[in-house]
């Protein structure tokens, strides 16, 4: 995704899946605490406003719409994490595995492998615009 975008500008944008079907609307953006870069978007889906987290890399913002390169069914099937203001290393690892993405070494504090255990339990994904 473009790195020069204010992550708060994503809030309220439509999110489409790989085939162009609407997934929902971006409700929040989570930043990586270590880098400050936007990493995950919470997309409100369905009537009950369930939030599914989608990775912002390799997603793209095109014409004010977030294009997520995954099927809507995969997005809607994300683990229910009940996150809040931060993602724990374990929660983020679950999301990387769910989407079949390589786990960055910085997320685990070790090698880039979904089968390895997470690093120290520290919060590293905060919501954009939060003070702490």
TrEMBL record:
TM region(s), chain numbering? none
Instruction: Please name the Gene3D superfamilies in this protein's record.
Output: Photosynthetic Reaction Center, subunit H, domain 2
Q: Which domain of life is it from?
A: Bacteria
Biased composition, class Low complexity, residue ranges: 109-119
**Listed Pfam families:** PRC
Q: Which residues form the PRC-barrel domain?
A: 8-70
UniProt-listed SUPFAM superfamilies: PRC-barrel domain
Residue ranges of the region described as Disordered: 106-132
Name of the protein: PRC-barrel domain-containing protein
Source lineage: Bacteria, Bacillati, Actinomycetota, Actinomycetes, Kitasatosporales
């Amino acid at each position: 995704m473009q790195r020069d975008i204010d992550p708060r500008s994503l809030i309220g944008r439509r999110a489409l899946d790989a085939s162009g079907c609407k997934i929902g609307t971006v409700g929040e953006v989570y930043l990586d605490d270590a880098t400050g870069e936007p990493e995950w978007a919470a997309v409100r889906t369905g009537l009950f406003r369930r939030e599914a987290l989608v990775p912002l890399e390799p997603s793209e913002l095109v014409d004010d719409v977030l294009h997520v390169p995954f099927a809507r069914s995969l997005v809607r099937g994300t683990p229910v994490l009940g996150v809040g203001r931060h993602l724990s290393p374990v929660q983020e690892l679950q999301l990387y595995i769910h989407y079949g993405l390589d786990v960055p070494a910085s997320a685990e504090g070790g090698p880039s492998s979904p089968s390895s255990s997470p690093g120290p339990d520290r919060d590293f994904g905060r919501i954009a615009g939060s003070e702490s």
